[in-house]
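Supplementary Text 2. Reproducibility record for the structural model of the 293-residue chain.

All settings were left at their defaults, and a single model was retained for analysis rather than an ensemble. We include the record here because the model underlies the residue-level annotations in Supplementary Table 4.
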Amino acid sequence: MQRAKFRIGLIQMACAKDPGENLAKAGWRIREAAGNGAQIVCLQELFRSEYFCREENARLFDLAEPVPGPTTEAFSRLARELDIAIVGSVFERRAAGVYHNTAVVIDAGGALLGTYRKMHIPDDPLYFEKYYFTPGDLGFRCFETRYARIAPLVCWDQWYPEAARLAALGGAQVLFYPTAIGWHPSEKAEYGAAQHDAWRTIQRAHAIANGLYVAAVNRVGYEGPPEHGLEFWGGSFVADPFGQVLAEASHEREETLVVECDPRRIEDVRRNWPFLRDRRIDAYAPILSRVID
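Retained model, structure tokens:
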């Protein structure tokens, strides 16, 4: 459904150990974005704490909260006051022993439209997410906000073309990727530039292949002990439906980006590169196999 132009805001920030401090910072950053014209504001993955998945520690489950809960209540008040939609990230306590990495979508006016639970859960050095998170069970969801139809996906999801395609087929005009990704200090010199380039390239490719806007929102700053922590590389950006980068944040600084999106650009790109039209849906059944032997 084509609409008027709308503006999205991305909040790239460093995180402290205190969840209350991070929520307060997110609040004034949201106000900053709204003051600069943003109508849909997205925060980075797990913004209320440092990235705790660097270690496996049962005490860290205390960081989790229910949905609805303190974070959604705070964002609902801001959305109602500022007349904006907000995409937030919550370490969700669903039940005793069942936790999710969850994106929440709050519409202008303050209503909680729903949640998306991260589907792809990584398990890599310093990214021990399988210890904390149950894989999502809600599928790839789209939400009709007052300003645009959007699909939140989360971090590791951004490497999977299937997730982006299903969101596009659901009518999303923007894919939002709340993210926490960075360099291992021992790898940065040799692999850092290539790792960042791959991350940026795969998401631009989703924009091109699906003819929609992509917004990646990463954190910034170093977290953890020297040589055993992560340097989050920031670089939050928005790509248009042709994959052109409209705005991009630095690797080092906290920044708030505000970018205008035009649904007519989606229409124009898809008319000229009609990938969705030419899909061979009769031939794709093998993709449901783990491998094709």
